[in-house]
Amino acid sequence: MSYDLFLGCVIPARLPFLEASSRKVFEKLGIKLNDVDGFSCCPDPTGIEQIDRNTWLALGARNLSLCNNNGGVISFCSGCVETLKGVNYFINKDLTIKKKVNRYLQKIGKTYEGKTEVKHFAQVLYENLEKLKENIEKPLEGLKVAVHYGCHYLRPSEIIEWDDPFEPITIDEIVKTLGAESVEYDLKMECCGNPVEKSDKDLSLLMIGNKLKAIQQAGANCVVVVCPACYQQFEFNQKELNKLNNTDYNIPIFYLSELVALAFGFKPEELGLNFHRIKPNTLFESLGFEI
Amino acid sequence: MSVINYKFRNEVLKHNASLSYCYQCSTCSGGCPVALLTSGNYNPRKIIEEAILGLQDKLVQSQDPNPWLCSTCQKCVELCPQKVELTEIFVLIKNRCFKQSKTPEAFLAQAQAVLENGVAIPYSKAILTRRDKLGLPEVKTASLDEINELLQETNFKKHLLKEG
Amino acid sequence: MESSKSALVIGGGIAGIQAALDLADMGIHVNMVEKKPSIGGKMAQLDKTFPTNDCSICILAPKLSECYRHPNITLHSFSEVQKVEGQAGNFTVEILKRARYVKEDECINCGLCAEKCPMRVDDEFDRELRKRRAIYMYYLQGVPAIMTIDKEKCLWFTKNACRICEKTCEREAIDFEQEDKKIKLENVGSIIVATGYNLIEDINKDFLKNYGYGKFRNVVSALEFERLECASGPQGGHIKRLSDGEPPKKIAFLQCIGSRSDKAEKYCSSICCMYTTKEAMIAYEHDNELQSYVFYIDMRAGGKGFQSFLRRGASEYNINYIKSKIAEIKNDQNENPIIVYEDLNTGKINEMKFDMVVLATCIIPPVGIEELANTLGIELNKYNFIKTTPFIPIETSKEGVFTCGCVHEPMDIPRSVAEASGAAARAAEIIRGG
Asked: pLDDT tens, C341-382?
């Protein structure tokens, strides 16, 4: 089994440790990830798509035209997955859009038919749950995980076509398979607020503040995400929120691939966990993970 | 006083016919997380109402409600009983705002970065070192010439330079 | 003028009952077939009926008795139509009469057997809000007043044990040897289909999950609330929250749940706007401190006296009407449902906590309608209701087969009754000849 790998912008250029754990997980599972040269920004469905749909289609289709693997494309980022799936959706739904996009691509000597399959890495993990189970060496007992699905992993369901848009189960199932506990909390399905940051930083902080409060109240000792925007929103804002509201948030944020890698037996320093802004050291000590 | 702009209204309808299915039930505004937190200052139902009425000056000129506050969570689209494609219509309105030079700075900054680097976040030296330490391969991003030519073709460059 | 032709009425709800009585009073022999152990249908489950707020069973019960005792009506309860052949004026019908395992001539409905029966089963009539026994009366005032044994839950049929009812019955009315019977009817002139409706929560609970139905105990459907309000229902008419038994002081009624939606049923369920006001009025009569909030898209109250009914609700019964369809319901720690909605007068988004929420769920075609339509050779429309033409709404696609009531379109009781008389008249035309 192999996929072309679409890295996007945020993970490789700002949070490379998330890429490290993800690559290690897929290597252990025996799923090959092919690096492809020449990708651009997907482009950002909360950024460029909002200001110019045509450019979004053109850049997205260009990225997809570079893939040539029959297994399809995988990405570690929900935003990239939404863009690439979205581009496929519109190209396949409307012939005039397909023609328009290919007219753009023609100018740079490329074409795109809309046939490349796109998958979120969590989808691939869920589809290979048995293989995942076989590779678990250290069940993550003691981890009380607040699962945050985010929005673009699920919706719009007509484009994403994966988990249930309001009552999803896939990431909860993976977390439980890893031996951790998935904690129910208020506002579990609420948006983290990251896209709003470009327009209103205070509103964005308010949204993530509400989520962190609910997570702390529910007694979770960490959060798991599958999107780098959600990751940044959860991790980068805790300090500022503490200053603003006199709270004491210090909740480690994990990417799903990091949890899987830990369960596979990889050491925290192999995965670059020391690059997290909120260090999980205290949590790991209390659970008996070697640091 | 707002004036109905029939041309604008028809353009929106042509781009997305589902706009005419809306029966203003306010399921969308009841479920919208941003509407709740802004006490209704941001209101998806109102944006659709204004689009139905073709109130271009309210939507694009005064941006009341401000479409840029949408968090793109897509809850409204999932909840709408009439299958109105709200976020599609919001994209159209925001695209129009961009063409009329009414875009928040952060969006322009990202657009500029992509135009100049092909990616939204250029690779700093520190990151390249860190990648190396983590054993990650070098990333070869897009040819800037190609990106430049493509963005010229879509008129993106033109609108962006007008804004900046 | 006397004809040996008979009429067949399928369905023992108010529409079927009215049609049968009309035909019987005309001197025509009617065979009435009802799937459940008793006739009465949904109207028997209601507490009161709009717009007069008359007691439902008080209006229905005399008609039930008349159906049972009328010399021209043969009531086949706990039965189903299995085969229909022939054409208008001369149908041949095969009916399957299921065994009740109780002798109809002996049972006097004293209820001793049910007191002793050890099996507890979800009571379908009370929408599973309480338990009945394996030997049971479908409902208190049911006609025929004969006990029935639910063989899927009876210990004798499932585990070859018990038979306590048999030992208890002083009339020796229990008969475990009873068998299903096939009844053949010949010379049936016309058929009237009046098999009523089901509700969307009976077959599809999927989109109800956003409202917490089935998960949040204080979120109930409208028919469940009707049973809770009813004096003969599971709470004896004292409305209590299902979570802690406390009386609710603030109730939200949500309209258009599963109807007028591209994600569920596209059509309007027709009666909900009216019955919601009725339910809120009854609840207020039980407790004058109650505040009701009705969340709607449009208030559809077009019939005679309907608009003033709503106005009375607002002015005399503490009902607040708020135009805003609700997207979802959340629960707080005390199981109080929380509703977020936009106030369309101010544009503000409000959050309101309630003690209880009632969902006005969509009417859907009755379960089994496809098989019945197949048996009868009649067409269904795109929503799976019986297909009729707009100007002759009681004619089906087959000559000699007529229809009335909710089986072809959601409608209220007055309309069902009017259509029933219409269908009876048309059915009589064929039988009387000419």
From this structure: 999 988 899 999 999 999 999 999 999 999 999 999 999 999
Alpha carbon distances (Å) from C318 to C221, C291, C308, C312, C322: 21, 6, 15, 9, 13
Question: Rounded to an integer, what distance in angstroms lies between the CA atom of residue B49 and that of residue B43?
Answer: 10
Among A121, A144, A159, give the residue marking a domain's end: A121
Residues 18-57 of B with CB under 8 A from A: 33-34, 37-38
Sign of the C-alpha dihedral, residues C62, C63, C69, C70? positive
Q: Which residues of A touch C328 (CB under 8 A)?
A: 166
Distance from CA of C296 to the nearest CA of A (A): 23
The confidence score (pLDDT) of residue A231 equals 97
Task: Decide if A166 and C330 are in contact by the 8 Å CB cutoff.
Answer: no
Distance CA C78, CA C38 (A): 7
How buried is C62 (Cβ within 10 angstroms: 0-12 exposed, 13-18 middle, 19+ buried)?
exposed
Q: Cα distance from B156 to chain A (closest Cα, Å)?
A: 7
Q: Which residue has the tokens 């002081």?
A: C249
Domain C6-98+180-197+365-432 CATH superfamily? FAD/NAD(P)-binding domain (3.50.50.60)
Is the pLDDT at B164 greater than 60? The verdict is no
Instruction: Please give, rounded to a whole number of angstroms, the shortest distance from the CA of A142 to a CA of chain C.
Output: 25
Q: Which of A164, A154, A270, A268 is nearest to A222 (CA)?
A: A268
Domain that holds residue A28: 2-121
Do the strands C48-49 and A253-255 form a parallel or antiparallel pair, or are they unpaired? Answer: unpaired
For residue C317, the 8-state DSSP code is S
Helix orientation angle between B156-163 and B105-117, rounded to the nearest 10 degrees: 130
SS (H, E, C) A219-282: CCCEEEECCHHHHHHHHHCHHHHHHHHCCCCCCCEEEHHHHHHHHCCCCHHHHCHHHCCCCCHH
Contacts of B153 in chain A (CB under 8 A): 58, 104, 107
Cis peptide bond prior to B137, omega within 30° of 0: no
CATH fold of C201-362: FAD/NAD(P)-binding domain (3.50.50)
Which of chain C's residues have a Cβ under 8 Å away from the Cβ of B28? 327
- The segment(s) of chain C belonging to CATH 3.50.50.60 are 6-98+180-197+365-432, 201-362
* pTM (predicted TM-score): 0.88
Q: What is the ipTM of this complex?
A: 0.94
Instruction: List the CATH number of the domain containing A268.
Output: 3.40.50.11810
CATH code of residue A50 = 1.20.1050.140
Asked if B56 and B38 count as a contact pair (C-beta separation under 8 A), the reply is: no
What pLDDT, in 10s, does the model give residues C83-99?
999 999 999 999 999 99
Q: Is the pLDDT of residue A115 over 50?
A: yes
DSSP states of chain A: -EEEEE--SHHHHH-HHHHHHHHHHHHHTT-EEEE-TTB-----TTTHHHH-HHHHHHHHHHHHHT---TT-EEES-HHHHHHHHHHHHHHHH-HHHHHHHHHHHHTTT----S---EEEHHHHHHHTHHHHHHT-SS--TT-EEEE---STTT-SHHHH-SS-SSS--HHHHHHHHTT-EE---TTTTS---GGGGGT-HHHHHHHHHHHHHHHHHTT-SEEEES-HHHHHHHHHTHHHHHHHH-------EEEHHHHHHHHTT--GGGGTGGG-SS--HHHHHHHT---
A contacts of C210 (beta carbons < 8 Å): 166
Contacts (Cβ under 8 Å, ≥6 apart) of C281: C53, C312, C313, C317, C319
Pairing of strands C90-97, C181-193: antiparallel
| A35 contact C CB<8A | no
Mean pLDDT estimate for chain A? 94
